[in-house]
Amino acid sequence: MNAPDLGKIVSAQKTPRLDHELIAEMVEAGSRVLDVGCGDGELLQLLTECKGVDGRGVELQRDKVNACVARGLSVIQGDADRDLDNYPDQAFDYAILSLTIQATRQPKTVLENLLRIGRRAIVSFPNFGHWHVRTKLLLTGRMPINDNLPDLWYLTPNAHLCTIRDFADLCELVHADVEQAVAFNAYGGRLPIKWSLSMQNLFGEKAVFLLRGPSRSSAAP
Amino acid sequence: MHSPTSKVARFDAGAPLRLACQQDLAPFSIAYETYGALNSDKSNAILICHALTADQYVASAHPITGKPGWWDNMVGSGKPIDTDRFYVICSNVLGGCMGSTGPASIDPASGVPYGLNFPVITLGDMVEAQARLMDYLGIDQLFAVIGGSMGGMQVLEWASRFKDRVFAAVPIATAAWHSSQNIAFHEVGRQAVMADPEWKGGNYYASGTIPRNGLAVARMAAHITYLSEEALHRKFGRSLQDRSEKTFSFSADFQVESYLRHQGSTFVDRFDANSYLYITRALDYFDLRENAGGVLANAFRGTKTRFCVVSFTSDWLYPTRESRTIVQALNAVAANVSFVEIESDKGHDAFLLEEPTFFATVRGFLNAAAVKRGLSAPKEVKR
User: Fold this and answer.
1) Is A77 an interface residue toward B (CB < 8 Å)?
2) For A6-206, which CATH class?
3) For a FRET experiment, which of A109, B214, B229, B313 has its CA 20 to 30 Å from that of A205?
């Protein structure tokens, strides 16, 4: 994995999101990237400027798509659940799903598609197993609300929240190799990689998984 | 119908155009307008493809109507298609009536206008003729090909036929094939023209008359399809025209009737009825899948062109789902594609209007493509 020029990243964008910064570390320079649920294009822009990627995006919300295209990014208005079927196998080096999988209708199908479209998939998601979430639920008996889960249950776009453990199980189910899994604590610090999955699941507020699809684990990068 | 004001590229009898119907057309002429300056390595040329009833006067006054260019808000100095940076070419389509060879042109075999002896042409033929114009101008690769409606279909033909000659493509408010509903509307228009006794089987040129009523009705019917129910309602509602009461007659009581009659009657002065028949036919025949083994994605396989597909929410003539079909085909070959749907209640004609989000999209896309193409940055925006 190439070391990213973090100084360059920081100068390109004043405050890159921490998961974006990590994804920028994971992505090899000059690669082809599809960012599914690319929002306003912040990550795509970061990857384009700092890693020279050939980036494409898919975003559901029309106004965000328009903003992306107006700033020169290749983004289409579309839906992770509906529009990934059209892409050919291995069309990209990385298929990224950043804080979006919990809002899809068919997370398993979406993940399988990502692993098919990209030689690698990068998935980040809010961890519902975080101690804060668990305590909130235990003590208040209500759906937790925090920075990562800001909406009331009846307003949230999230449909399939999961824990780090749940997601690891899904990766196993679809025969994806986890090449790297990084969890962030509530202050944005990375939890030590050596920590057990249980500990990551308890103290990680967000997680980023770098995955490789089933049939391609042995293929040369 | 020929306009003396445009530049005209003439292709003589030795360089015939082989048409889709397997006939050779020769000689033929393509009338065109240009704006801005071609750079030294000829890398900044943009071809704009016009819609059914438009012409080469994209950003300059129309010689017959005197009206400003039909896309004069989009094309010009400092505008999204910036003539300070780009060399913009717009040519009258083959089969048209503003200086390019069409049914009103003289048939060299008979010495009189072709009329219905003009071969039935396709959008592919129009694009082949445009490619000949690019050869004539010495332009190997266009920086961009841009067009809305029928112009968008030409953009798709360009991107499919001449993959190496199109760096960026912007098909707007368009489709990869003409739908049954669109063919149906065109047939209404053609039948209106042909039902007019002044049409005379297409040989009205000699008598100096035109099938004015038929062509006007065709235009009126078509014009409705370019708008939306909301736009019509907002503009006219049920308001009466210059009167306070209904007249209990068939005169144009309603403003919307008066408006359509005006659209029809002004159209006939600037458009040849036979051209209308031929160009609507070309549209009906358009199906990009035909030369791609029935699979649209094959039409784009191997493309390196950067695409920006644009649709409008209230366009029911070429609705968003048809743009989405194009995007899906492009994704299937991992093409570089952007796709935006612009919120507008103005119907199909929204692509001709100043919609800020649309303009920002075109500007942003072209700027990014220009960087990739190594073209100079835009000058400081002057407004």
Assistant:
1) yes
2) alpha beta
3) A109
